[in-house]
Each structure stands twice: as structure tokens, then as C-alpha cells.
Automatic annotation (TrEMBL):
PROSITE patterns: GATASE_TYPE_1. The keyword Ligase applies. It is an enzyme of class 6 (ligase). One of its GO terms (cellular component) is cytosol. Keywords: Ligase. InterPro entries: ChyE-like, Class_I_gatase-like, GATASE. The lineage of its organism: unclassified sequences, metagenomes, organismal metagenomes. Residues 27-198 form the Glutamine amidotransferase domain. GO terms for molecular function: GMP synthase (glutamine-hydrolyzing) activity. It comes from plant metagenome. SUPFAM superfamilies: Class I glutamine amidotransferase-like. This is GMP synthase. Its EC number is 6.3.5.2.
Length: 260
């Protein structure tokens, strides 16, 4: 529920969570996203769609943020398809939408793009993002450097953009790391909400599997670093497209638990 009658809440579509060890120590994907967005607990409504939760009509919200998930869009889960239909309706209603990783892919799927496993393979850990020509002039990225680091953890990707969508940034393995899908619809394959502890914990838990895939695990660990530019993007998005919603000055200091 909103903290004030002057604004509607921001919806967080909670689409899944990390491994139990990471969940216990670092929180849910919804918690991470709320803090990265600079939102107070009273400014958000979290709906656990992966447990068959259902959001209200798009008109009930100021904006919507879609979390990452361990699921794959190509699995075609019933809850995922229902969420995709809701996102189509939200886009038609003009609601500001920002999707992350699975949310990025689900949004593309909902709007007519195609998602599949990335032929270039897995991206995990900290990697550099390079702005493309469209990104150099995009208001979301105003003032950011042309290259900056971001946290990643994915195997699937958008292989065909939705009609009218444009890629704003790429990485070494993915040409669609940041995509504008509409006037107020954006999404990132990378994770603005992840701090360094998330990739460290993931690689510590799955390093042997990653080595079996041919990844340089020691190199991944040594390359983990802060990602302040990437971390600013969800706050930037809300400031641009839902300016009526108050943002906390420093979301990293807000560690209040949030039922999600």
C-alpha cells in the first residue's frame, strides 16, 4: 500500500528466488530490487507470481518492476504465461515497466520477441557493458560512461527483439543487455540489484559446475567488483517515469526486512 494518497504503489512482480543459502543470507530477489530502487517497504506491493499470486489491474500502480528468477522463459510455466499476459495489458495501458534478467526476457516474450539459450553460453560474475549508439542518446543513461561493469547471471537471452524495440547496450556475449521496448518500458539482462556478495556466493556454490562448462572460475572471482553505474538504473528509471514516488536517499543503508 502507498505511504501517501499522493501516489500509487510500485508493483514488484516477484518471479522466483536464489538458492536457499543465498536467500537466507542476502534476501529475496524482491528485497534486493526494492533496496536497489530506493523504495521504502510502504511504497511497494510485492506479488509472488511464481506462487500463483495475482496483481491488481495495471491502473492500480505507479510502475512495475519484474525480478529475476531461476526459471527459464522457454519452460512456458503457466504462471509465467499469465504474467506475460498481464505485462501486455500493462504495456497497452502505458504503465512504466522495468524488467531484470528473467523479467527482461519475459517482457520481451510478452511483447512479441523471442527468448532462447544464448549460443555464446553462460554469463556470470562481473562483466563490462558497452553502450550502443541508441544508448548514447537515451535519457535513462544520461551522464553515464560508455562502458561500465554490471553483475550477470544468465544462460538464456533475447534472441529476437520485440517489434519496435532497440538495444541500448551489449556485453561480450550478449547484444541485448539493455533494451528499450517502449517510451516507458525498459529492461536489463544484467542485474542492477545485485551487490558483490551475490556473484561471490553463487560462484562459491556452483564453481565446480562452471568449471565443467569451461569457465575460468578463478578469473570470475578475481573480476568481481562494484557496479555503481548499473546499480543506479532502476532508481533512474523511477525518477524519470514515476517521479511522484518518493525514493530514499541511500537504499543501501535501508536493510529493513520485507515480507516477500
Amino acid at each position: 500500500m502507498p505511504a501517501s494518497s499522493s501516489f500509487l504503489p510500485v508493483l514488484i512482480l516477484h518471479t522466483g528466488d536464489p538458492h536457499a543459502d543465498i536467500l537466507a543470507s542476502l534476501g529475496s530477489y524482491a528485497q534486493m530490487l526494492r533496496r536497489a530502487a530506493g523504495l521504502a517497504p510502504t511504497s511497494v506491493e510485492i506479488v509472488r507470481v511464481f506462487e500463483d499470486g495475482a496483481p491488481r489491474a495495471p491502473q492500480a500502480y505507479s510502475a512495475v518492476l519484474v525480478t529475476g528468477s531461476p526459471e527459464n522463459v522457454t519452460d512456458g510455466a503457466e504462471w509465467g504465461e499469465r504474467t506475460a499476459q498481464w505485462l501486455r495489458e500493462a504495456a497497452q495501458a502505458g504503465l512504466p515497466i522495468f524488467g531484470i534478467c528473467y523479467g527482461h526476457q519475459l517482457l520481451a516474450h510478452a511483447l512479441g520477441g523471442r527468448v532462447d539459450f544464448n549460443p555464446a553460453g553462460r554469463e556470470t560474475g562481473t562483466h563490462d557493458i558497452e553502450l550502443l549508439p541508441a544508448g548514447l542518446n537515451d535519457p535513462l543513461l544520461d551522464g553515464l560512461p560508455t562502458t561500465f561493469p554490471a553483475q550477470m547471471q544468465h544462460m538464456q537471452t533475447i534472441v529476437t527483439l520485440p517489434p519496435g524495440a532497440v538495444s541500448l547496450a551489449r556485453s561480450g556475449k550478449d547484444d541485448n543487455q539493455l533494451v528499450r521496448m517502449g517510451d516507458r518500458i525498459l529492461s536489463s539482462q544484467f542485474h542492477p540489484e545485485f551487490e558483490q556478495d551475490v556473484p561471490r556466493a553463487d560462484i562459491a556454490r556452483r564453481g565446480a559446475d562452471y568449471a565443467d562448462e569451461g569457465l575460468d572460475v578463478p578469473g570470475l572471482v578475481s573480476n568481481i567488483r562494484p557496479t555503481p553505474e548499473a546499480a543506479s538504473l532502476v532508481r533512474r528509471f523511477l525518477a524519470l517515469y514515476a517521479p511522484q514516488v518518493p525514493l530514499m536517499p541511500d537504499p543501501r543503508e535501508d536493510l529493513q526486512p520485507l515480507a516477500a
